[in-house]
From TrEMBL:
The EC number(s) this enzyme carries: 1.5.1.20
One example of a Gene Ontology biological process annotation: methionine biosynthetic process
The keyword DNA-binding is annotated on this UniProt entry: no
Protein name: 5,10-methylenetetrahydrofolate reductase
Organism annotation: hydrothermal vent metagenome
Family annotation (Pfam families): MTHFR (PF02219)
Length: 347
């Protein structure tokens, strides 16, 4: 091969390499655009389902006391739960007990199943600087549904000498999200680039001796921009009806325009042990378990654990179906017993 032929061959080889590199970047750009569009559609569909008459079911996931959530993901996948629900939620060190990061767990869960995840953020562990930093980072990973909690007291922690931050209650986090959705941080400095829309969720007790006081707290959270409110577990259909009535009144009384489309999501925590029923009713504020359920569970426990679980599941399944018929917006909490979730939902 002559000198000129070698130069031509090298140029062809270089151009061929350049063309392949260009095609690779074009392909990568299309993939990234597709992922972004898919993510936007995913959250749009999630909110559309929440605001429609279609069934909406989310399941709470607790990160492990360890450095990997893979075993939890396998447990979900083993029962095909991801195909039966609308989305997930992930807790944030509940009861101030050490768990893997809720934000990072939520990102991995969302990427694994392609389902929207509501990430819990607690005021107990973060100040407004850390909250904003976490929200902006999560936003870049398309984690955009945030459940704002005040958080359980630090004195319950399993870690020595833990102190809570608690600059304010969960309304501070709702206020921060309101600012970010307007393209500014909490000090009103413009963010560049502006975050993608964040959907704020909040919580409420399911029962109070004075239900009007409960309603006032709901109105306050709607005023701070909450788009949906998840209740503590409901164990009585009349209680569910009362909550829906109170919520509709609260929406009308809120000063915020977003309250018009806000939704109430009824919490469900299936009881399959009598001691759980008694503990919740006696020791957990803001939740009421009807006496007839406690009596049935206590009687079933007298005939052994199998009978107790059989009766408990039957009661839980009946209540779940009744609530879904009344208001098909449910949040299931089962302490990672995903087979129980799957059985309750059915085929």
């Amino acid at each position: 091969m002559g000198f000129l032929d070698k130069i031509i061959a090298k140029n062809i080889q270089r151009d061929f390499y350049t063309l392949h590199l260009l095609l690779f970047w074009v392909f990568l750009d299309k993939i990234l655009r597709y992922i972004t569009i898919k993510s936007l559609f995913m959250f749009e569909q999630f909110c559309k389902t929440l605001c429609s008459n279609e069934p909406y079911i989310t399941v709470e996931v607790n990160p492990p006391h360890g450095s990997s959530i893979n075993s939890v993901l396998k447990s979900i996948e083993s029962v095909g739960l991801q195909d039966k629900i609308t989305g997930f939620s992930v807790t944030d060190n509940p009861l101030a007990k050490l768990k893997m990061s809720g934000i990072l767990s939520a990102i991995k869960l969302q990427q694994k199943f392609g389902k929207p995840v509501i990430a819990t953020m607690s005021m107990r562990d973060k100040n407004k600087l850390s909250l904003q930093s976490s929200l902006l980072g999560a936003n870049d990973f398309d984690l955009r549904c945030i459940l704002a909690l005040t958080g359980d007291p630090a004195k319950f922690s399993d870690q020595p000498e833990v102190k809570g931050v608690l600059e304010r209650d969960s309304t501070l986090l709702l206020s921060i999200i309101y600012h970010l959705n307007n393209g500014v941080d909490y000090s009103n400095k413009v963010l560049n680039p502006k975050p993608k829309p964040i959907y704020p969720f909040a919580v409420t007790n399911s029962y109070a001796r004075n239900m009007k006081s409960l309603q006032k707290r709901v109105i306050k959270k709607l005023d701070y921009g909450a788009r949906a409110i998840i209740t503590q577990p409901v164990y009585d259909l009349e209680n569910a009806k009362e909550l829906l009535e109170i919520f509709d009144e609260a929406k009308a009384m809120s000063i915020r325009d977003t309250a018009k489309d806000a939704q109430l999501i009824l919490g469900q925590f299936p009881i399959v042990r009598s001691r759980t029923a008694n503990f919740i009713d006696d020791r957990v504020p803001g939740i009421s378990v009807p006496k007839n359920i406690i009596d049935e569970m206590n009687l079933a426990a007298m005939d052994g654990e199998d009978k107790e679980q059989e009766v408990g599941f039957a009661l839980s399944k009946r209540l779940f179906d009744e609530v879904m018929n009344l208001h098909p917006k449910v949040h299931l909490m089962t302490h990672n017993r995903f087979n129980l979730c799957s059985d309750l939902i059915g085929e």
